[in-house]
Amino acid sequence: MKNFSTVGTRLVLAALFSGWTAASAAPLKCEFRADAPDQHLVVKGDTLWDISGKFLERPWCWPTVWGMNREEIANPHWIYPGQIIWFDRAAGRLRLGNRIEASGEGGAGNLRLKPQLRTEGLGKDAVMSIPAGVIEPFLTQPLIIENDELAGAPRVVATQDGHVFLGKDDKAYVRGDLKGGSSFQVFRPGSPLKDPVTKAVIGYEAFYLGTLKLQAEAQPGSGSDVHTFLVASAKEEMGKGDQLRAIPPMPMQNYVPHPPEQKVGARVVAIYGGVTHAGQNQVVSINRGKLDGLDIGSVLQLYHAGKTVSDATAAKSWMGMREQQVKLPDEEVGSLFIFRVFKHISYGLIMQVSAPVEVGDVAKSPE
User: Is 124 in the same domain as 6?
Assistant: First the structure.
């Protein structure tokens, strides 16, 4: 299993802890762990998902047991090392408090908590909801190219001095509609991604090659529709036929964990890196996207798809004496946190796993 950095984007506590009620989904039962502690002192390196896992059977349920109403979370608040999460067992809620000095009241050995929210220095040193360092490379690079993007993308048609490949500061000549953009990522379409069920191509893997910066746009009436670019950065060699995509703004996401607004049933299409099995903190793509009701922060449960087997114990069919075929139940193996959504495909981070995840595994709405 891989190790990843957890240094990354600072995320808003209020968004994570806001209550979430899907209009079309039945209420989900969030259970506290039998061994849940009375409190947890937040330390540097914690993630909100990991902290919630100390208290809850399903860590993503935290928003429903935090106990803050929508008025209280209207303004963003953060959680910091040194603060305390404590379990209000009587109310079935989690509370946020600060450690304060013990007084004679109740004895010197007793810890008194003052429930409050820190409002100064918002964001600085706040803990993250998920290990953001793992997913940062996936937020802006073109990992998935859908069919409509592929057809309309500008492309490199020639290179400086006829070079086979381009490097930093080389010139690239590009045709296509720039749509007012000046900074672009360069990608090369890779293997088609097929829906594991329908076998239809739903997109293509994209090999990220680097970035180009517009030097001179093609001028109307000049007799040429070719734009001149300079290579701003080169991760891999790029050349004729490679395609361009506008650099998107770096997103600042709140990553609110919640069930999808509508019931979703998906399959794992691919595991990033071309490996056959994935573990915790690895990224997979699934065959459902925003058109299927997924958005950023949706949480799905992962299952090994139950196999279809012959039931040798059942009475044989009178037609050819064939054995009955039965499907075994799907076996739950983990949770998937959706962090980037395309039309028909989404990327998710495996947050918990009890067995390796494979291509074709099921990802569906929590039950």
Answer: yes
**Final residue of a structural domain among 108, 130, 152:** 130
Domain that holds residue 22: 1-130
Q: What is the pLDDT of residue 261?
A: 81
Helix (H) or strand (E) holding 229: strand 226-234
Residue 148 is predicted with a pLDDT of 73
Q: Helix/strand/coil (H, E, C) string of 238-272?
A: ECCCCEEEECCCCCCCCCCCECCCCCCEEEEEEEC
40 compared with 190, residue with greater pLDDT? 40
Both structure tokens of 207: 């090999």
213 versus 121: which is more confidently predicted? 213
* DSSP label of 140: H
> Six-digit token pair at 209?
């090659």
268 alpha-carbon distance from chain centroid:
14
Is the model's pTM score more than 0.70? Answer: no
State the sign of the Cα–Cα–Cα–Cα dihedral 13, 17, 18, 20. Answer: positive
Q: Which amino acid is at 7?
A: V
Name the residue among 101, 126, 128 with its Cα closest to residue 113.
Answer: 101
Q: How far is CA 241 from the centre of its chain?
A: 30
